[in-house]
Amino acid sequence: MFGVTKKHALTAVSVILLSGCGSLTVLTNSDQDVAENLKKQKTYCTSLLRVSGGVSYNLCKLHSYPERNYIDWYLAFYFFDTALSAVTDTVVLPYSIYLQVEEGNMPIGAQVRR
Q1: For residue 84, which of 13, 2, 32, 33 has the smallest C-alpha distance?
Q2: What share of the chain is helix, strand, coil (3-state, %, to 5)?
Q3: What's this model's pTM, rounded to 2 decimal places?
Q4: What is the pLDDT of residue 62?
Q5: DSSP 23
Q6: Is 98 left (phi over 0), alpha (psi -120 to 50) or beta?
Q7: Per residue in 60-72, pLDDT tens?
Q8: Which one, of 47, 49, 45, lies nearest residue 96 by Cα?
Q9: Alpha carbon 72 to its chain's center
Q10: Distance CA 96, CA 108 (A)
């Protein structure tokens, strides 16, 4: 058609989907970067599980102050991303269990106040 193969299309779709993936965020960033990102979202969470870290990350982003409510399509994106994160978290489960045992929960810091 346009010289685009199935492989190229699949790669493009994968990159787009993974760009917002909670699992990718938790696995590729430092604890401090993840904590700072969640603090900017004004989350109520004070720590983040390393096991199923992507799902936990997305839930912490949604568990934020009311002024951070999301419009419908954004909320739908989080549900979709959480499902993808659950799959990714399952694949990396042995690694995340090791990190959970060795390092415990990822601290986010003191609960953010208004």
Answers
A1: 13
A2: 65, 5, 30
A3: 0.74
A4: 85
A5: H
A6: alpha
A7: 988 887 665 556 6
A8: 49
A9: 19
A10: 17
Q: Strand, helix or coil at 84?
A: helix
Give the pair of three-digit tokens for residue 114: 């208004």
Contact at 8 Å (CB) between 54 and 85?
yes
The string of DSSP codes covering 31-83 is: HHHHHHHHHHTTBS-SEE-STTHHHHHHHHHHSB-GGG---HHHHHHHHHHHH
Q: What would the pLDDT profile of 80-103 be if each residue is shown by its tens digit? A: 888 888 888 888 999 999 999 999
CB atoms within 10 A of CB 63: 13
Q: Is residue 43 within 8 Å of 108, Cβ to Cβ?
A: yes
The region, left, alpha or beta by phi > 0 then psi within -120 to 50, assigned to residue 104 is: left
pLDDT surpassing 70 at residue 16: no
Report the alpha-carbon distance of residue 24 to residue 52 in Å, rounded.
Answer: 11
Nearest in space to 31 (alpha carbons), one of 88, 105, 92: 105
Q: Which residues pair with 43 in a beta bridge?
A: 64
